[in-house]
Amino acid sequence: xxxxxxxxxxxxxxxxxxxxxxxxxxxxxxxxxxxxxxxxxxxxxxxxxxxxxxxxxxxxxxxxxxxxxxxxxxxxxxxxxxxxxxxxxxxxxxxxxxxxxxxxxxxxxxxxxxxxxxxxxxxxxxxxxxxxxxxxxxxxxxxxxxxxxxxxxxxxxxxxxxxxxxxxxxxxxxxxxxxxxxxxxxxxxxxxxxxxxxxxxxx
Length: 203
Ligand SMILES: [Zn+2]
Prior knowledge:
Layout: H1 7-26, H2 32-53, H3 57-77, H4 81-93, H5 97-112, H6 119-126, H7 137-154, H8 170-179, H9 192-200
Residues 16, 19-20, 83, 97, 101 line the site of zinc ion.
């Protein structure tokens, strides 16, 4: 059924599933049970998405499972400001939801890093990064963010809003993203001005 999905749709829906797993793993309401789903989902998605975009049977099957496991997790605990900002971007610029989530994810992960304890070590490990136990906090946080960025690029999504985002829209985008239902679950408190800065950093 999924083998006829176009590459772009496979990539963006797949990165949406990864965003569900990562935001669900670090959201304020996360606990042992939801962590179990999210870490497994990150691992399955990280090893399957490139194959799904290349339309291999293993990749397609992996993504069918990975997105489901992520859904079992985040539907219990909520998400964070990546989804708030993505909902708003899609509404203003007609951007596919998963593409918006993926574009924002590395810079939102960087913003959230100080509020995540050791969780980025586990994200990096689940993304397939080697040697995470020997890394400093700074190193494993960077490694997790880079692994996410690399996966997005490998499936054809560039983490930039150049040519899309208009400076004059930023105040309204930031206001609407701040008001979004996912924002209160974000692990790090964020203001409307900080949301505006995150959008601006991608121009
Ligand atoms: Zn989503």
